[in-house]
Amino acid sequence: MAYEKFIREADYLQSAADEYAWRRARELGVTRRRFFQMLTAGSVAAALSGRLPSKAWAQAAPTPVVKPTPKELFNDYGSNKEMRWENMYGRGYLVPNELFFVRNHTKTAMIDAKTWRLKIEGSGVQKPMELTYDELLSMPSVSATRYIECAGNGRSFFETAYGKKADGTQWKLGGIGVAEWTGVPFSEVLNGAGIKKSARDVMPEGLDDLKVRRPMPVAKALAEDTLLVYAMNGQPLPADHGFPVRALVPGWIGVANVKWLGRIEVSEQPLFSSWNTETYVLVGPDYQPQPPSKGPVLSNQDLKSAVELPWNGEVSAARRLVRGRSWSPFGKIANVEYSLDQGQRWQAARLREPNIAAAWVRWDFDWEPKPGKQTIRVRATDDKGNVQPDKVPFNQQGYLYNAMVDHPIQVK
Ligand SMILES: Nc1nc2c(c(=O)[nH]1)N[C@H]1C(S)=C(S)[C@@H](COP(=O)(O)O)O[C@H]1N2
Ligand SMILES: [Mo]
């Protein structure tokens, strides 16, 4: 099937759903005529549109994510599973693999490490080559503690700020996680393939249905913490997070961290894919097209903060410790302030080591809340002087919302 022609995810997903529905119907012995009768009667259409999640249908559907994602731990958006921040309260620095958010454009690819190969090729290398899993694992490796965050993390707050929904998964702030990633620096592999001085772009490519791929400049690919990752928090990379090997591109938008890697293209020409021309570009009244891209192309994530409390949940009026985390792709967090009155008065939160650039810092403060509806607003500043803003200009696909957010909480 020609997945390539689908640029808009929604079109792709709809067509995949149609194809799936027809295949299932056929397996169940439904004739084509009967299938179309069902379609017009609305039973199939309702199940597909998600209006009537029939139980039988839910069981028949393929699971886009393999690991368990119970609703106590994740907000469920189909192939995207959002970490619920309250589960990080009182935990250590890292997000355990079981709690780490998942963002799949289609579904988790199941790859056999025995037959897996990684190709490194293109006009930018002198010696194109192919690596097996064992060969990669025998190369010098490093570990780095970094976040991976979806470019759309915080997207739902565009609607809060503008009364207008941006396209895509309506993440709150749980489209991020920090892990210790272990793997081989891209530089080892690129040097092994004889990368040329004239090489410009490096594009990792996934083995999933869509072959997700997105270029980065050679300088970023050669950074010491840009890795071909095969372990996450000391365990083999889980299937949902890209087994056997994914890219780690620190500080960059989530999609650059390509999962289920199969190929790396190195080119003397700038590279393009739909993921840096159509999507992961800024489109909106404040942005101009940048042909061949529809708008400014994203690279780094931005400075943000989140509170480790249930979203609009309930807490008792007892004195408590409020905890949260702030992060920046540009450096360490220099300070974190909080406001309990929507920005009139600010106080400093205490920062807790470690404080790692392109990972995060934990912070806390004491709170003696009064009963009623309360909000907690947090503002982080990094050591390069970046501060979380009041508002972010609207962009249609809802990327990089990093303004301050009022975390709602009911105090009983
Ligand atoms: N091959 C492939 N890589 C991918 C994706 C994908 O759908 N296919 N999703 C990307 C996006 S948009 C994000 S935010 C991160 C999410 O990583 P995670 O699922 O391990 O949290 O993976 C990226 N890598
Ligand atoms: Mo993403």
Report on this structure.
The N terminus is likely disordered. By secondary structure, the chain is an alpha+beta fold. It has 3 domains: 57 residues, no CATH class; 200 residues, Oxidoreductase, molybdopterin-binding domain (Sulfite Oxidase, Chain A, domain 2, Alpha-Beta Complex); 108 residues, Immunoglobulin-like (Sandwich), CATH 2.60.40.650. Strand 17 and strand 18 form a beta hairpin. The protein has a 5-stranded mixed beta sheet. It is built from 8 helices and 22 strands. 16% of the residues lie in helices and 28% in strands. The longest helix has 19 residues.
Q: What is the name of the CATH superfamily of the largest domain?
A: Oxidoreductase, molybdopterin-binding domain
Indicate the structural class. alpha+beta
Summed up, the helix count is 8
Unreliable runs: 1-17, 40-61
| Whole-number tally of structural domains | 3
Q: Which CATH class of the largest domain?
A: Alpha Beta
Percentage of residues in strands: 25-35%
| Helix amount | 10-25%
Jot down its keywords.
single chain, about 400 residues, alpha+beta, Sulfite Oxidase, Chain A, domain 2, Immunoglobulin-like, 3 domains, five-stranded mixed sheet, five-stranded antiparallel sheet, about 30% strand, globular, binds ligand MTE, binds molybdenum atom
